[in-house]
Amino acid sequence: MRILCCPTFRASPCHNGGRNMPPENKRDFDAVADTWDQEPRRLKLAQDVVAAMRKALPLSPDMKALDYGCGSGLVTLGLQPHVGHITGADSSAGMLEVLNRKIQAQGLANVTTLPLDLEHQHLEGGFDLIVSSMTLHHVQDVPALVATLSHALKPGGWLALADLESEDGRFHDDSTGVLHHGFSREFLTGEFAANGLAEVAVVTAAVIDKPGADGTPRRYPVLLCVGRK
User: Fold this and answer.
1) Looking at the predicted structure, is the pLDDT value of residue 153 above 80?
2) What GO biological process term is on the record, naming one (predicted)?
3) Residue 188 and residue 206: Cα distance in Å, rounded?
C-alpha cells in the first residue's frame, strides 16, 4: 500500500501499527475500486450506517467532518448534505479517484479527498466530527487509531466508528487484509473511554444478511460506537 503524504500531516514515530504487516496481507483496494459500488449489499450497508449516524449524532451545517477509510465515498456522500464540509480520506488512490469522479459529476463544493494512511501518519485535525465505516478490521493497531482520531477532534467533537460485531471469521470470503474478526461492544466503549470520550454509546447500525459457504443464511450485526470529546 503506497504511502502518500499531505502538508497537514506528519509521520508519527509512535504510530507504527501497520509497519510490520506483511505486504501480501494487504488487500489491493485499487484493483476493485471501479466495481466497488456494484455490490447491492455494500450500498445498503452504507445507507444503514448513515441513517444510524444521523440518528445518533447532532449533525449540523457548521461541522467540519472527516471520513477515515472512505473508500468510494458511500458514507461520505451520505453525510455530505448534513454537514458543512467533509473530507474523504483513504490510502487507496483508486478509491479516491472514484470518489473524486462522483464529486465532480455532482458538482459538490463541500467535499474534498485526502490520501492518508493513519497506520503511518499522524493526523492533525480540529474536526467537529470523524467517522469511519468498515475500516477498523483492516487496521492492525486499532487502539492507536482510536487515540489518533480522538486527538484530532475539537473539544466537543464527535467520533463515530462502525464495524462488524465480533464474529467467527466466516464473514469475509477472502481474508486478505482482514486483521480482526469484528469487535465487541466492550472493546469499543473501552477504547473510547480510555481516550477521554464521553456520552459513549453503542448501537446496532445494520445487519448484513449473507449466506455461508454451505448456503445457510447468516446474520452479521454492524455496530456503531459514538462518543464526544
Assistant:
1) yes
2) methylation
3) 16
**pLDDT digit string, tens, across residues 78-116:** 999 999 999 999 999 999 999 999 999 999 999 999 998
Cα–Cα dist 220/109, whole Å: 36
From the centroid of its chain, how far is CA 35? 19
In which band, very low, low, confident or very high, does the pLDDT at 72 lie, cut at 50, 70 and 90?
A: very high
Please state, in angstroms and rounded to a whole number, the distance separating the CA atoms of residues 19 and 199: 33
How many CA within 13 A on the CB side of residue 88? Answer: 29
Q: Tell me if 18 sits within 8 A of 117, measured CB to CB.
A: yes
Task: Please determine, for residue 131, whether its predicted confidence score (pLDDT) is greater than 80.
Answer: yes
User: Among 139, 97, 135, 134, which Cα is nearest to 120's?
Assistant: 139
Q: Set out the domains of the chain in order of their start, with CATH numbers.
A: 37-228 (3.40.50.150)
Cell of 156: 466537543
Q: How many CA atoms lie within 13 A of 215 on its CB side?
A: 0
Q: How far apart are CA 176 and CA 160, in angstroms?
A: 25
Q: How far apart are CA 177 and CA 155, in angstroms?
A: 33
Instruction: Retrieve residue 89's grid coordinates.
Output: 480520506
Q: What is the residue type of 151?
A: H
pLDDT > 70: what percent of the chain? 86
Which of 11, 14, 29, 44 lies closest to 138 in space, CA to CA?
Answer: 29
| CA distances, 120 to each of 127, 140, 142 (Å) | 20, 11, 13
